[in-house]
Model the fold of this input.
Amino acid sequence: MIIDAHAHLDFLPEEKLIEIEKDKRIKYAVTNSVNLDSCKKNLEISKKFSKIKFASGLYPEDDLTLKKYGDFEEFVLKNKKEIIAIGEIGIDKTEKLDFEFQKEVFIKQLNLAKKLSFPVIIHTRKAEKEALEILENYKDKLKVLLHCFSGNFKLVKKGVELGFFFSIPANVVRSEHFQKMLEIIPKNKILTETDSPYLSPFPEKKNEPAFISESLKKISEIWKIPEEEVEKQILINFEEFF
Ligand SMILES: [Zn+2]
Done:
């Protein structure tokens, strides 16, 4: 059984979405949004395909403004019944947007999630320490999933102490960083993800939820338990988080 806790399915062609819906191995895939346009696309996708769940969020892209945040908040309030999480949100020092403004919009979205009792899906780049400092204030108030977390192991341990969840991408088959994370993080805090169409375990192919079968093999090897046990644990974690 496949659970993809973080993907961008609005970037996949319709035929692929139909394939996902028909694929008996796939149980859930969470499609994440980065701006209002992708929120709207993902909302429509999740209405059409029962396995696809919708996360609504604003990533700190260059052209993000307070006005855009306002439109986003209105969209979330209007469609809250269709939303399962706020994501992907975060702070990112590789984006050109003013870092202080990024933090402001990040905090606004965390507060919105808290108000509506939604979990949050977080991505940070080159700002993992700052992100954890902000998220620490929401400990016990928000369920937090750190997607594709590339902070050092000291920060991974801090995330574990704060009770956060981590989703491990399918390129774990090649990445020593993610393999080591699987040894450090408790089993009940781990989810699987693809970040489709990015981070493919096969360099020549676009990523898709089905490739999580590769992660399951790798996790089973690292955890030293059968794949079915891994699948059961991931399902328990998914249901606990969302
Ligand atoms: Zn993503």
About this structure: The pocket of zinc ion is lined by residues 6, 8, 32, 88, 123, 195 (CB under 6 Å). The mean pLDDT is 97. The first strand starts at residue 2 and ends at 7. Strands lie at 2-7, 26-31, 52-56, 83-89, 120-122, 144-147, 165-169, 190-193.
